[in-house]
Amino acid sequence: MKKKAIFPGSFDPFTVGHHDIVKRGLELFDEIIIGIGRNSTKKETFPIREREEAIRKIFADEPRVKVAIYDCLTVDFAKEQGAKFILRGIRCVEDFEYERNLAEANKQMGGVETVILYTRPIYAHISSTLVRDLYAYGKDVSDFVPNTLR
């Protein structure tokens, strides 16, 4: 049986840390589905379809990475995709308690396990907001974005 995980809602093509989490997740799972959650109350940095296209471009050479848009709870999306794991990435130890509580809720609500990976230290201090702001001002952000977006 293939081990499948979802990486829900938070993947930002401008963040090398997220790219790194998915690549390292592929060492643990046979397939990862990057889920783009729709949230009508949250202002989007760029449209969902543009985000989807950027993610597909980043992982064009990796057939084990899929992209899907979802409108439901993450645990329901995981079940719908046949995934028994949710892959989450964190940048600092302060994020861990929140993620641990979320993992417990996912386990109780849907029987889905959560795997939490730290972003590698070289990426931990770089926020996607900072990268987008620098990019908007015409600054070179090539060290902070995946090669395919350069």
Description:
With 150 residues, this protein is α/β, with parallel strands linked by helices. The chain has one domain: HUPs (Rossmann fold). It is built from six helices and five strands; from the N terminus they run E-H-E-H-E-H-E-H-E-H-H. The protein has helices at 16-25, 48-58, 74-81, 96-110, 121-124, 128-136; strands at 4-8, 31-37, 65-70, 85-90, 113-118. The protein has a five-stranded parallel beta sheet with strand order 3-2-1-4-5, sandwiched between helices. Strand 4, helix 4 (96-110) and strand 5 form a beta-alpha-beta unit. Helix 3 packs across helix 4 (96-110). The longest helix has 15 residues, at 96-110. The radius of gyration is 15 Å and the shape is globular. 29% of the residues are buried.
Number of continuous helical runs: 6
Provide the domain count: 1
Average pLDDT number: 81
How many extended strands? 5
Largest sheet: 5 strands, parallel
Radius of gyration: 15 Å
In terms of DSSP E residues, the strand content is 15-25%
Assign the structural class, choosing from mainly alpha, mainly beta, alpha/beta, alpha+beta, or little secondary structure: alpha/beta
Helix content: 25-40%
Known CATH architecture: 3-Layer(aba) Sandwich
Distance between the termini: 37 Å
The name CATH uses for the topology is Rossmann fold
